[in-house]
Amino acid sequence: MSEKVRKNKSIKAWVTQHVNDSYVNQAQKDGFRSRAAYKLIELDEQDRIFNGVNIVVDLGCAPGSWSQIALAKIPANGIVIGVDLLEIQPLSGLKFIHGDFTEQTTLDALLETINQRQVDLVISDMAPNLSGIKQVDQSREAYLVELVFDFAKEHLKVGGHCLIKVFHGYEFDNLVKQARELFTQVVIRKPSASRSKSSETYLLCKGKKLV
Ligand SMILES: C[S@@+](CC[C@H](N)C(=O)[O-])C[C@H]1O[C@@H](n2cnc3c(N)ncnc32)[C@H](O)[C@@H]1O
Fold it and tell me: Which of 62, 76, 147, 199 is found 20 to 30 A from 139 (Cα to Cα)?
């Protein structure tokens, strides 16, 4: 089978799975921008991560379903700041920064928007573009997770929470270890809307320590 035929087949399989996916259909009915919404809803039902939260940073926010939920969960005077490499359709109330979180200019724009306040909650659903080479993809993902920890170290309030997508791979244990150094409680979650064959899991890091 040629490379082109194989690629077309896998795109077709993805489209078929996507169309038949009950979470995709439900997201359309509920007005969410993506099926990812149900992952955050389930995690919040279980762990109440939005309790007492006013300022949220949503990293890798496009197309915006986590931001939709965050905006609905926080008080009217709260702030949600979303960052993504991709543009998004405007979302009322969201302060959106279009940029690469690994770049200083994006971090500077984020810090300017935070304006010296401490963040209550960081949620990161960032996933790098997959190369298909497992080790490369896992290292890229781990790098993003480490940058989220660096950001949390400096700008998340003491006692604040962080929810981060992490791929299960050879970097996983090391990332959990880093999370445990920074937070009082770290639990691993795999919400039902996360496809079982995907290696993604979420680290729910609760209660930032005074470090
Ligand atoms: C799975 S999607 C997020 C879905 C989102 N949580 C939602 O509910 O709509 C992952 C996003 O991470 C973004 N991303 C990946 N690497 C990034 C980076 N370095 N900086 C900013 N965004 C990034 C991608 O562009 C993509 O939109």
Answer: 62
CA Rg value for the chain: 17
Q: How far is the CA of 124 from the centre of ligand 1 (A)?
A: 8
Q: Can you tell me whether residue 156 is helix, strand or coil?
A: strand
pTM score of the predicted model = 0.92
* Residue of 165, 177, 208, 209 marked catalytic: 165
165 annotated active-site: yes
| CA dist., res. 110 & res. 74, Å (int) | 19
- Coil, helix or strand at residue 8: helix
Distance 202 CA to ligand 1 centre (A): 14
Amino acid sitting at position 209: K
- Kindly give the distance from the C-alpha atom of residue 1 to the centroid of ligand 1, in angstroms, as a whole number: 33
- pLDDT confidence band for 124 (50 / 70 / 90): very high
Within 13 Å, how many C-alpha atoms sit on residue 34's CB side?
16
